[in-house]
Protein 1
Amino acid sequence: MQSLASWLTDWNALFGQREWPVYCTADEVNIYFVRPNLFNSVNLFHFLCLFLHRCCPWSRCCGMGDFRPRTVWLGHPEKREQRYPRNVINNQKYNFFTFLPGVLFNQFKYFFNLYFLLLACSQFVNELRLGALYTYWVPLGIVLIITMIREAVEEIRCYLRDKEVNSQIYSKLSTRGTVKVKSSGIQVGDLIIVEKRQMHLRLTSVAHSSPPLPGSCFLRTDQLDGETDWKLRLPVACTQRLPTAADLLQIRSYVYAEEPNIDIHNFIGTFTREDGDPPVNESLSIENTLWASTVIASGTVVGVVIYTGKELRSVMNTSNPKHKVGLFDLEVNCLTKILFGALVVVSLVMVALQHFAGRWYLQIFRFLLLFSNIVPISLRVNLDMGKMVFSWMIRKDSKIPGTVVRASTIPEQLGRISYLLTDKTGTLTQNEMVFRRLHLGTVAYGMDSMDEVQSHVFSYRFSFPFSWNNGSSRAPAATKVRKTISSRVHEAVKAIALVHNVTPVYEANGVTDQAEAEQHYEDTCRVYQAASPDEVSLVQWTESVGLTLVGRDQSSMQLRTPSGQILNFTILQMFPFTYESKRMGIIVRDESTGEITFYMKGADVVMAGIVQYNDWLEEECGNMAREGLRVLVVSKKSLTEEQYQDFEARYVQAKLSVHDRSLKVATVIESLEMEMELLCLTGVEDQLQADVRPTLEILRNAGIKVWMLTGDKLETATCTAKNAHLVTRNQDIHIFRPVTTRGEAHLELNAFRRKHDCALVISGDSLEVCLKFYEYEFMELACQCPAVVCCRCAPTQKAQIVRLLQERTGKLTCAVGDGGNDVSMIQEADCGVGVEGKEGKQASLAADFSVTQFKHLGRLLMVHGRNSYKRSAALSQFVIHRSLCISTMQAVFSSVFYFASVPLYQGFLIIGYSTIYTMFPVFSLVLDKDVKSEVAMLYPELYKDLLKGRPLSFKTFLIWVLISIYQGSIIMYGALLLFESEFVHIVAISFTSLILTELLMVALTIQTWHWLMIVAELLSLACYIASLVFLHEFIDVYFITTVSFLWKVTVITLVSCLPLYILKYLRRRFSPPNYSKLTS
């Protein structure tokens, strides 16, 4: 049994099915180190290496059906206790053996194609044969060949992408030293070295590290959970004492890790070293882990691989991709079923008119074959080829460079989007924070006046040599006003430079040694690491105005003044920011003066009750928030030594409490948070992607509702929504209060119901409660909102929201994202769009369409989506019209000749009619357009008309059916009335009139002529005229050269087409469509 499991596992690695595809890029194979930049010395990290893999369809047979805990020996993958998934990805739908049967199955599982297969097979029965076999098998073969070529091209492209990723080279520690290994060759237990700028694996980390925070690193998790802040991670302590990373192979140690699960916020494990005296056993938690799709700051990382394949967290948080079938295809399929019903009815009527004489059941089948053109076999191939053309046009559009179409089967879906769900970080924003404003109450400094702040900082320092350490220095009375302004600026700048959790890190730049750079605080070698990009932007701003953070560890901080003086501060206490408190604080002691100061910054909603009374805080916070800035209120409070000692004693006692520890600690801290001096307000902007605001305005005017789903904080998401004008200035915002119970959710929903035209902001936890108890009510209210912002959303929650929108509204959805945490949402949506950004290509590879910037979405939908849908609708209805025309003629012919099941046209005529004679003009409709692309972008309201599905509806279908019946009847009855003696004259007159009618109808349908359309019309006409020489079996060649033939064909053609031209003119004259008003 074990050998069977092994064989099946190897078979899966080679020829797996597409049950668990995982999408990744060259940047992303080492999913744990996207852009590492932290350490110089070799940092030993114990990893949880969850590599990308797809699931084996026989995983339970292979012993991988149930997730189990594991013991992993460092550097010894051969000691594994169980089989683990191989570290390969395979995004292909088929393999060498399954390609042909798989493609055929996917084609014939639909009624449309199965119907034509049965028709073709019926011609092997003599009683049912109506003509040559090739008249049925050749069209079917052409359809299948074109489909297989398209599928083969996509499979080859997918194979090459997978091969590129699986062949990436990494360094592995072994007994032979450092060796190179392909990503597909990495196993659980391997010690992998991940270099700077190399995207890393899934890891639990353990490390040697350099100062300032020994054995620690920062990482960013926005690809995994959408949060943009940096998180501090710690190594296993006992590995810090090893001289080099190679010594890991010399010790007997292992990691015991929990079974794989979807929780990205927790981890349970232990690290054991057996050869120690005594043996060392340390616990591992989330603080020791580096999950997939996180970014390490810099340096070199060494880690042991714990998880691979389907067991990685990001894969377990990714929903299985569904095979997307466009709504347009479903509608066309519905119409073909109606046509098939009409085919059956016509066949039964014909047999009924024969009074069911003789072997009537065979006659039914013969009539089904005779009228089989009612359901056009060329419809599917025309639509598929049209989609390929639309995809090519999207890729070649110079105004949206870099756009890639990965799903060429659904471009027309882009023309009917009702809900657009977008990520925030990296999609709407650049994730680059910029300091925009400093407000002191009586004076505000913007970007254009920061030089004044800098001059205050420099002048204050130079005028008062000791003032940086003593804000109350004695100054001449004559400069009192100047001193007051400078003093306030100086206090604000110093507070901003101190109240944060930022750590400066020094890197060697190839010339400067790191230790030397650190010793001399080299500016060119310094980078800032922090738990939030907001904090980094604030510290970078203080550096730009003259006060620089040059050093920090867990107990001290160093600032450098404009004159080069180093100010030393001891960190006495640190109160980190939490989602509940919405503020952070720090107590520091100035080493030169001994002064103790409590600094605090936080959101205005909480700081308003903490700072001393003032009359400007609320107003200015509102003004800055309306500009889309993230506002922080900065304050301070001076403490005496006695006050601090009393606080410390109470604080330590509260932290030792067993019961209600958090409440007691918060109470002690709040005792300090009273009557604090308000220093300033800061405004930071998360820079938006280029042209996000006009793009969102275009989408809104087009009738598309935009929802923002992000894993970021509520305040950050709200600010971005305002800044991007997702929420307009005249719209209110309802922030859904946190709810945990059914009763709370009920009350909050009732409060929300009373508001109108109001944007909704809700957190993921509250959303989960609402969906659990009041799914229908919540979705009903949310769908009425002009905009919705969901923050703190898990990847699976994003996919759930998309699914609920589809189920509750029945409308088409489009999901846009750039990170690994957006893959589930992208795959669940009707159209998934990936943005290739700084976070790699995981989302773009999982998406149906890939763009380089969010602004390209406007043109993708307004121009290409609109054109693709309208062109597909016109093409499909014209193909149906073409088939109904000849079927109507066949019905008239059979009726006249005593309901005989005899074909009107045979052999090459029936094949040539839908191929070389009319194919090019009909297919040239894919080049048609009603308005120019510039007009479509300028008037997005044109897109709104498509949301009702009017280009392809039962009304338009019925109109085309009536046109087909009219023209087919006129042509056939005209030919019967005007022919003289020979039956072949009926064939010649009717078939020529039919070809000319189709060419004229194409011309009537076209709205904007393209030179290729003219070529197609002339080429088809030339092909028909030239082929008449070879069709003497079906057409009297001498007759078609007579004047009698020409005038009869001309009359019939005019009678069939002229009324339609007149009707079109009258309609455009008295009831023109919207677009015609813009083009005239």
Note: The longest strand covers residues 677-688.
Protein 2
Amino acid sequence: AMSAGSADSPPVPAPGRRRRALSELLVGRVNKQKYKPEREQKLQEAAVHLLKCYQNLNDLFLEVDSTQCKKTLCFSNLSDHESPGVPGTHSKSFVVSALQEQASKIGVPVGILSAQTTVSSLQQLCQVPEGSQQAALLNLEQRKKLSSLLDIAQDLLERGLFCRFSFCQEIWKVQVKCLFARSNSQIVVDWLYNNLCLVCEQMENSNQEMEVAGLIFSDFMRIFVLRGFQKIPDLRRNVELEKVPQVGGKIKVVFRFFLSFSGTVCDAIQRQKDWSFAKTCPLLTTLYRRLFVIFSPKELIGHLQEVLETHEVNWQLVLSCVSTLVVCLAEAQQLIKDLLAHLMIKAFESYDLESMITAFLIARQAALEGPSVFIPYADWFKVSFGNVSGYHGCSKKALVFLFKFLSDLVPFEAPQYMKIHILHPPLVPVKYRSLLMEYITLAKTRLADLKVAIEDMGLYEDLSSAREAVEPHCQAEQDVEKAIQVFEHTGKIPVTVMEASIFRKPYYVSRFLPALLIPRVLPESPDSRMGECLTDIHVLGLAVLAIHLNESKAFVPELVLETSAYAKTCSVTAFWENLLTYRTRDSFSLCIRFCVAAISYSLCKFSSQSHDVLCNCLPAGLIKKVQFVVLRMYLESRTTCQEDLVDLPWRNLSSPSVDWKKAALCLWKQKKFQELLKERECQLTYKDWLLFEMEVKPDNDILSDAERQYFHQWALYQQYLPESSVAGGCDGDLEKACAILIETAVDFCLRYFNNLRGMLSLFQEMVLELELERWRSSNTGSSDDEGHFLFRIFKKRLQTLGNGSTVGERLLRHQELLVYKSILLGLPPSVLISTHREGWQRSLHCKDFFHFVNKELVLISPFQGLLSACLNCREPSKEVNLILTACQTQCPIILSSAVLWWSRLEPVVQCQWKRHFQTALPQELTNIDGSWIFSSPRLTLLSSNFCTPWISAASLYFIIHQQAAQEIMKTTLKNLECEREELLLPLFFFSLMSLLSSYLAPNDGMSSLKPLNICAEVLGCLEKRKISWLVLFQLTKKVLLHLAPDQYIRMLPFTFYSLVAYFDEDLFNREQAFLYVAVDMYLKLVQLFVAGETSAISAKAGFSQEHCKQVDPLELITKARLFLLRWIPRCPKRSFSGIMELLATCEEFDAEMKAALLSNQQSLEDADLYREPLLF
């Protein structure tokens, strides 16, 4: 590293002599001269002087060796690991000394000098030696020197002798100088393109360069994309037109360069299924789509064609680009077809093998994306070569060219493509048939080597799909499903199946037919088209089959009715019974024919057998069904008459025209049949009859409305009511019959989501008869203290559903209550009111009804029933007042509902009362009617001293809630402050319930802001009048609590902290219980969140962004917590009274809150200890 000249000009070694490093020179001097102590001092001084005068830092940086550097350039490996005695350690120390000396000499900081020297050394290192071949990557010698240079720079950096900022500045100067040396951007682009191409060449020549080159390309592509798109924030919008050509020019170079890497055709043929759009790296597909925005589809195809015309292409990138193109651009399908046509014409005109290969690869790649974006490969192959106008039909040479190409593909391509070529071969003249057969033989041999049978290919198999081939039996099942779908849609056997039965007989016989004949999963409900297309002969055959299957039921496996995880199974006998429905007129006809034929055949077949054998071989369900249908359809059967001499009807059923009514009545009169009806398992019980009757659709019944009503009355009063329970009847108990009807009806409605339209008139008639019996019994002094049987039934059923602790139980309970409500609404209103007789006086009671409404919140107006029931009382007006007064405390929700709908209810009540009495309405009804009145634009409240405050408050709130103008609300509240301040507290409660309703059941037309504003206004009035409102949250107002569902009461903490922004700051001092209530509400709010009950509010938050901001439970908990932690230190001592009760809950849910409460309570107690006592 010494130089005899200036420091700026490197020394030139003498010709024929190798330039040696400093360490070698020093070692040589040690070996040649003997060590003399007296010369050591002089030698060191001379060496130092010589270095100071002639040192060249650039060469010094490049000559210092690092024996620990590896081939890979990793900064973590550039630390100084040399042990004492190794020359590298002394060399680094020497470089440091030289740098410090040089910096001191020229007056420059060491860090800046080391950075400048490093950049200068890098520039010198990257220069191409004269006479060497042009290259883009550093050679091995240059990399070693670069490794040494980086090692020195890392060592200097660790010593604090290297300035990074100065290094970046110097690097930037070199880059700017390099760019200015090229006159315009196009020269820069060409220079960059040429160098990247050199990288590709070096990468091809050496496998060792692959990893380095890959990293280089990855970095360049990232920079290209970032720089090319940074000035176009949204390519979907209109951009400045002058910028698009610049960006397009850059991207065009990148696009063509990116797709021009080399790759083998064999790899492309074998691996292109892995290069589909779905399997391509998302980063790459994103890059493609950004390119598609810059260029039009035609330009993209043009650039793609230019790339394909180059000598070597990267097939993975080209084909993945094709896949992305057809998936993302609708116009690409036709453009790709045109490109394929161009390539095929070019291939057969000049017998260009490359064009042929390119066309096949692109066609297969595009087909991999499915028929929705491109035609299947099989269709493209048939269109290209399967007709006389194919590309290969011009000459024998073209045929030879085609089959030579297909034969060359055989060793490399996937089996599905060879299957297509075999099953859809090119159209070949007879005289050249041998060419085709040679290829088919070759392809079949290859398939045999791959253990793939051409016979196993499915009828509807997607051969162009990128999915893995399925097992042959699975493919056959898929073919059967597809064929069945086509048959259901068209009503004809698919042409594909017909062709396979002739031309693909091995697959058809060995695969398709066995899959078709596998027992199918039967639907839970039968096909309705079965119920009209069956002739009498068909019915007879099915009936005989059902009897024989039932006879052999021990050997017949159970049938699976569904494919889900909750699949049901049933016996073959039960399945036949389920098929026979009687919902419509046509199904009645099928049912009677089938049942009569089956039972008649059994009686004939087993006529010589014992009665027990006959019972075992005849399905009991068929006997029940034939009883129901015959009794319903034929009036003659309702009078029992059995004859021994009547012939069995089976012999007459095979005649061309069968009289099924005559056959059914003939069977009905058979003695053996009547004996079967006495068997317990064959009895059609009252419950069975109800279930069968509920399935009938009244709109399509075989009976008219009058006939159906007469049949219902006959079945109830003559058949089942007088019959004993042992025989399936009701023991003469009408209430028992009504209870069985209700139980059966509820179960039926819940199972089939149906109503009781067909049975409603009979049900109403039974209940009315029971009401008359109850009234007659009350005249004799009997009491119905047990309550109405309807509510007893409801209560008993609800007890079996659990307490509603789970979502499933709550849903079942809700469905059950909906059925109860529909039942009650179909009955006379008087059933809701009980009548008691005390001596000569009659009194009304609603205990059962009140309990049902309070517990289940099923709101049904009792006013019509109340006015009807009071007719039997001596003082009707008094009884009405007593019931409504009791309602205020026992079931207030009924009155609040009446207040809400009074404008519609009042005319009905007035009309009914005036129809029976000539007096005015009872006082309690008058109070409801006079509790509110409003006129526009000013609302005026009537001051009724007789009306309960919460009723007036309810009516007032409903009016305020309907007003759109906030000024009217403020005016009304101002009037309340002066005249009726006792209404403010219940009005606040109704406002809170409305706020909760807006959270739990938001209305699309109204956000929660309006109820929140109403709450805030009412709260302000309460604060202004110094009226304590904490009692609502302490749950001490029992009457008001009955006005809302339990869920709303549990959610009161949510409303408490929704209003925290409107609380008066003096509350903690004025209200002793406020701290206790606030902490209690916070803990309950946290408990609601932990239990998941606030999820009902969160689920509704998606209705609007405004609603979401208002009802975020977690945000509200955070706000409540901060509110308490801020105000607890300011609370007086008396506020902590009773707070100890909440500490256990605090410890469980919020230990910090507990600590804050204890700390402030203790500090207040300590302050009292140190306070001087007041002695005077």
Note: The first strand starts at residue 559 and ends at 560.
Protein 3
Amino acid sequence: MLEVPNGFPWPGKRLLPGAGLPAPLSPQVGTNGVISTQDFPRETQYVDDDFPTDFPVIAPFLADLDTSGDRGNIYYRQDDSRDVLDQAVGYIQAGFPRSAGAFVPTNAFIATWEDVGAYQELSQHPEPSTKLNTFQAVVAYDDEDTYTIFLYPNGGLQFLGTRPKESYNVQLELPARVGFSWGDSDDPKRDGLFFHSLASSEEALSNLERESNTGIPGVWVFRVGSTEHVEPGGGEGAAPAVPQSPPEHPNPGTASYTHPLSSHTSMAQRPSHGARAPVLLGFVPGRRDTQEQSHWLRGDGGTRQSHSANPSSYMFTYSAASKETCAQHHGRCSPHAFCTDYAAGFCCHCRATFYGNGRQCLPEGAVHRLNGKVSGSLRVGRASVRFQDVDLHAYIVGSDGRAYTAISGVPQPAARALLPLLPVGGLFAWLFALEEPGSENGFSITGAEFTQSLEVTFYPGGETVQVTQTAEGLGPDNYLSLRTHIQGEVPFLPENVTVHITPYKELYSYSSSAVTSSGQREYVVAAGTANQTLSYRLRQNVTFSGCPHARPPARQRLSVGRAFALFDGHEHVLRYALAARIGLAQGEHDAENPGVSPCHDGTHACQAPARCQPGVGTEYTCECAAGYRGDGRGCRDVDECAEGLSQCGPFSVCLNVPGSYRCECRGGYRPAGDGQACVPVAPPSDPCEDGRHPCAPGDRARCLSRGDGRATCECLPGYTGDGIHCSDVDECAESPCHPAAICYNTPGSFSCRCRPGYAGDGFQCTYGEVPRLTPCQHERMYPREVPPLGDGHVPQCDEQGRYRPLQCHGSSGHCWCVDAAGQEIAGTRTAPGTTPPRCGSPEPTERPPSMCERWRQSLLEHYGGSPRGDQYVPQCDPSGDFTPLQCHGDSGYCWCVEQSGREIPGTRSEPGTTPPCLPSVAPPSVRPQPRPDVSPPAAGTFLLYAQGQQIGYLPLNGTRLQKEAAKTLLSLHGSIVVGIDYDCRERMIYWTDVAGRTISRAGLEPGSEPETIISSGLISPEGLAVDHLRRAVFWTDSGLDRIERARLDGSERRVLFDTDLVNPRAIAVDPVRGNLYWTDWNREAPKIETSTVNGANRRVLVHTDIGLPNGLTFDPFSKLLCWADAGTKHLECTFPDGTGRRVIQSNLNYPFSIISYANHFYHTDWRRDGVIAVNKETGAFTDEYLPEQRSHLYGITAVYPYCPGGKTHPDHIPLGMLLPA
């Protein structure tokens, strides 16, 4: 951008409001020997016409010139180097020795036409002319003044005119024109003041390179910056032109402003014999082979980079290093914009059917949303009120200029006192106002990056408040982001009053980087039958970085036809609603324009996202906005991805969004530098594989790759240390063996051996001989450790202690056949929920009594054949196995058992409820038919995830995602499900709904109906956690900034915390230890906190090196608290006391929710719109699932076929005792 001070081509001062600086002007260089501050009209409108032109020009040689066929180059640049400016000063002071004596330019704009030819029609001239012209124009300026220099080197003008554009076969040549023009004047008396002609005849043109007004042949200087006229040099007497070899100067005559130059004109100086030719600034004689980068202007007006020899016969050398071009920076433009190069840079312009400033473009007529935060410090009457980062949401209907704004969480009395402050929402009315013909709304000028400063003074009290609103660009799905700060004093408003604001009009004034307005508004405060009319005065200023070549209207009028303000005390929400249109200021409309079009007064019948297109008079048509298709009355979204209309490159994924689409790189790829293509992501080296790690030897420690080229060291079990230095742990010091055994410490382990005379394994020793355990019995007594060190399988043994031929995993649901040694027989493993394999020999017709039957018979005999109601008797199925559900007589206590009859910890229920127990064999193949929108899940472990209006089901095969079996579990039309969790006792899923502002639940059994348990007192319920032991549910509300709890049926509801919370989101519970954890992604101070489940002992666990902790999970097996951070992109874990913090993965995309299962984490991701699997030990991404229906995924949880072990202490504490009301 070139900033030229006041003067040509607009006389007088042109300052930005309140800035005190000259307005930026951006010259454009034309092929036809002219420079202008406006876009050029068609050639036929100016190239053959005499002065004045219709648009402002500086014309060193205005003619029909041509650079095609490699005939000549056109160079231009801005320069502030000292050498160049010093030489320019020499020429200027030669022409103005007195008035320019103190002139010190800060910048110069230089344009050079080198070896350009006259345009020739091919049919008339088969051979191009060899006559070529070279000339130059320089604009030198500071903050106060501007001078223009024309330079014509000796022999530089070989032709003096060109053929007219529409000469047909007439042989005619029009002389070129040299001079200045401001454009046409509306005042005929001032025509002579609006142009200055230096030469327009062949005689005058032929003298340009021989004569001068500075004493240097071919150098002409003019002052154009401080007066209303162009002032030629040479009118103040002679002076040295440049520091070296000053020429002799004859006495000059009187300057002429409107007459052409000829050999007898008094303004021209005849140089003496010793006068020299123009000295070229930046050119060193003898160094003419210098190569330099230059801007090259083609005949069609476009620009490109070119390398060309240094032009050796004129002033300046050229460098393109400082100029930004479309070729370099087109990625800054919106995907819905095109890029245009200009003399001083480039600009972006939105394509048809889109509007904006080119950097950000939105579809015309579509619905838009805006999210933001509001902070402030207000004095209301005698009260001082502070609030931080409360939520602001706006909903825009672009087709008719309606803007709805809601601000929630502003404390009283400030919220009520802000009712008259309609300009807070009025900004959006101006941004997205309905545009009348010839006008532009605010977004068309500022785009989505600007700052509004607003000052409001209330009367009669004189209270003053300042509002600053900063737009921070467009986010995903074209959501505009805004931060608002309010500070000052506002009048107090009592309760039970309403505020009425009458329609108003407001005048806006525009410059290239600022918009200003001011005005007086009246509002009526009504209390019952009493009304009081009050007023305030406002002044506002919007600053932005716009395209310097844009020409916004000088003034526009915003007309607000409807204005509405309301405070909802029940929901604590302040609301503004406006309907606005914008048009040219009064007097700028066409006087003959008939009545107002329905498109402009909002009476049209077009349905969003269609836009109203004005016709003749009051006629109009409805047209679907870009990205939509239909007849205008009904518009449907175009799926550019499905129809192949997108421009997504290779290795990218096309994601359809309303009215448009976006491209995202596939996994393992990243955006290239041009912002369009995707290139492979170079995988970071694995220090664990190449040995570049500091860990202790492999027999003492293990190396864990973090996925970012770094590694973590951990000592192996049996060793202690930091992973780099590991020492053996003496387990014998803790006496782990039986008292009748001897402990032997070994490196990394130990062993126990019974003393002589005792038998056993060292952990259990019995005096004398005891029967030896079979391998199956030994494995049952000392099962393998839980994952990840073992698979957690407890084998099933028969009565003789041998392995049963059929083995089934108690948690995963897999079944397989084993041999006599208990080893799995390859190819026999079956998936959860399918029919188990047939193993071993067929059972005899008369089988021996099973363990369940023998135990049952033994107890019945012990009870005398008729047990009492409080005595337990095992229940056996027809095949002799224990039934999965066992109950204790008629006491009402029930629990689930394994196949061996052993109680599954954590499943015992209280009287009145029955635990859901999974059978140890395959489920029945025939099930009741569920309701149409519910698909019951199969047995085994699976994931549930929230995706807008549905809850999805994603089964696991071990830890791998069974993508082909994924399906919709529950459809919830009109909902937006965010938080989700599972009650393993009653097999119920619980979820939060931010659209319906409710919390609901549904069973996993076929035919279960959703049930709402919390339906009031919620604004934005997000995170949710279920405590299956205490039968409680906990949730966060980011609208109310609260954490609450209730019983699983919604009763005994109570607020746990409502202070020191800004944006609470994720929440997790440890039922066994009775601890609660939650995240607060307050952008100013994000943190993770904890307390007991009854709200005691609240404290901050993590508050450093976190950004947006969206997801949180507590792993009941490893006892680790882990979170996914969308700000730092980290997945981290810590112990429940905040110690042992470590990074698992440091290159997440945009995680939202996370859950832990076995040796994996599973999180939902908003960049990929899917479920991502991460290995706990290595941090590696192992799998991903992308639903066919692409939209954001929210909460995620894991559903086990059993409840994690543990019980509360003491047992069965009522929730009311834990959480007193």
Note: The longest helix spans residues 82-95.
